[in-house]
Amino acid sequence: MSKESSSKTSGLKRFIRRLILFVLFIEAVTAAVLKVLEYFKSKKADEENPKRDFKEVFNYLGRKYAAISDKNITGVITKNIMGATSLDLSEASFKEDGFISLSSFCSAVYIVVPKGVNVKIDGLIKASRIDCDVDEDSTLPTLYIASKITCSSVYVTTAE
User: Fold this and answer.
1) Do residues 94 and 113 make contact, with C-beta atoms less than 8 angstroms apart?
2) Do residues 106 and 129 touch, judged by C-beta distance below 8 A?
3) Chain centroid offset of residue 65 CA
4) Most buried residue among 36, 87, 127, 159 by CB atoms closer than 10 A?
5) What DSSP designation does 57 have?
């Protein structure tokens, strides 16, 4: 093996190492920026309407589990981009009828609703799947899910 070919392979290895470090650096910066944006969005929303009775759940490029156990909330706003979100509402209670505003792109969303609630799902659904295993009873309050989902899967079940 000549000296010239060994320097080419070591140069290629050095380039690959630097490329991997660059990609990892970009991933870390992206994650940090998304966390900061989420913080400022929630802080701004708290300042604008401190007595709101709905919750917000945002998930970008990752997994998120959100258990909401508040009493007398109106609803939940959730946005998901390329991630998996579990929204556990099994211990929440809603003021009369409640809502979930669901926006999802290339995600999987799992929603657990409390017992004694009807679920109605409507909205813009493109190349997506929705499974709702909640029994209907017209005498119970209704949880409306207004959805705008693309290339996603949404699973709605009742708490056990």
Assistant:
1) no
2) no
3) 9
4) 87
5) E
CA torsion 32→38→40→42, rounded to 10°? Answer: -160
Alpha carbon distance 158, 135 (integer Å): 9
Domain extents for the chain?
A: 1-52, 53-160
Tens of pLDDT, residue by residue over 114-136, are 888 889 998 888 888 999 988 88
Residue pair 149/123 in contact (Cβ under 8 Å)? The answer is: yes
Residues ≥6 apart with Cβ < 8 Å to 60: 34, 38, 80, 81, 82, 83
- pLDDT by residue (tens digit) across 26-46? 888 888 888 887 777 776 666
Q: Let me know: does 154 contact 103? Beta carbons within 8 Å.
A: no
Secondary structure (3-state) at 115: coil
Helix, coil or strand: residue 86: strand
Which pair of tokens denotes residue 107?
């995600």
